[in-house]
Amino acid sequence: MDELQVAKLAVHAAEDKKAHRSVILDIRGLSVIADYFVITTGNSEKQVQAIVTGVKDAMAEAGIDIRGIEGYEQGRWVLIDAGDVVIHVFHRDERDFYGLERLWGDAKRVEAQ
User: Fold this and answer.
1) In sequence order, what are the residues at sequence separation of 6 or more whose Cβ sits closer than 8 angstroms to the Cβ of residue 24?
2) Torsion from C-alpha of 79, 105, 93, 16, nearest 10 degrees
3) Is the whole model's pTM more than 0.70, yes or no?
């Protein structure tokens, strides 16, 4: 599975948990951090945690190694490190405040279909 497929898997797993405003940003050539950012949103801390669990489970089923998860306990901004794909699961208030899409405005958006 290539990195774009991993990003799309993350989006689909998040949306299975009713995540919204999911986007994939292609940051290749813009950063050495990763090739893709997935950004998605939950409406509450519990929903953010459920989204993270759903993404983690989908990755495990597909045999994709998760290197780390940060922020799960607070459920406000959770970062899932899947190597060249970094998944950001935000509480809706945090997403609007931090505005990663604005910060990475030069990144191309990729459709998850």
Assistant:
1) 4, 7, 8, 11, 36, 37, 38, 109, 110, 111, 112
2) -60
3) yes
Instruction: List phi, psi (to 5°) of 88.
Output: -110, 120
- DSSP assignments along 34-76, one per residue: -SEEEEEEESSHHHHHHHHHHHHHHHHHTTPPP-EEESTTTTS
Strand partners, 79: 70, 88
pLDDT in tens, 17-44: 999 999 999 999 999 899 999 999 999 9
Nearest to 98 by CA among 78, 69, 83, 82: 78
Rounded distance between C-alpha atoms, residue 34 and residue 81, angstroms: 9
- Residues 41-95 pLDDT 10s: 999 999 999 999 999 999 999 999 999 999 999 999 999 999 999 999 999 999 9
